[in-house]
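Reading is simple: the token line describes the chain's fold. The lines below illustrate.

. . .
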Amino acid sequence: MEFLCHHRDRPGSLALRAELTERHWSYMDGYAKEMIARGPTLSDDGAPTGSVHILDLPSPAAARAFAFDEPNYQAGVYRDVLLRRWRNALGRTMWDFPGGRTGGDRYLVIGLGTGPAADLTVPPDRDELIAYGPLLSDDGTHWLGTAALLRAPDAKAARTVLTQDRYADIEVHNWQFGGRPS
């Protein structure tokens, strides 16, 4: 079962986040085999605003344990967590993205669904998609939205990966590949 976890930083938590960097990475090292994608969301000036992890885990309970045992969450860095089942429509990890780790602007786009399911098929310009798939209920039977990591010229262009009038809200966040520096 695949899950998307988006931890959002609490205002004023940057120093605490920096203090916990090694503990966060060590925690994530324990999930290396399960990881599909990871990385921080960023403000326009490059400061961290949150953290995204997409993983393949055995159950919703395992996903909740991952999200809420995370050191930054335990220490109060994060103000809230979006945790949803997700389906990997591309069938690859971010490390398989043909565009590589650098070059171009990267975004997390989250559409919170309303009404009938939308955007279930991969958009035609898949070469710019790093990760893409529907957000689902815990039992995997109900569509709750769609989430994508992608490369785009700007946030406005990134937003167009989703059908605009099919969502109650669409969030666009600056994002970059995560993990330990090489």
About this structure: Residues 60-69 form the longest helix (10 residues). The beta strands are 2-9, 35-42, 48-56, 78-86, 105-113, 129-136, 143-152, 167-175. The mean pLDDT is 95. The helical segments are 14-19, 21-29, 60-69, 71-75, 155-159.
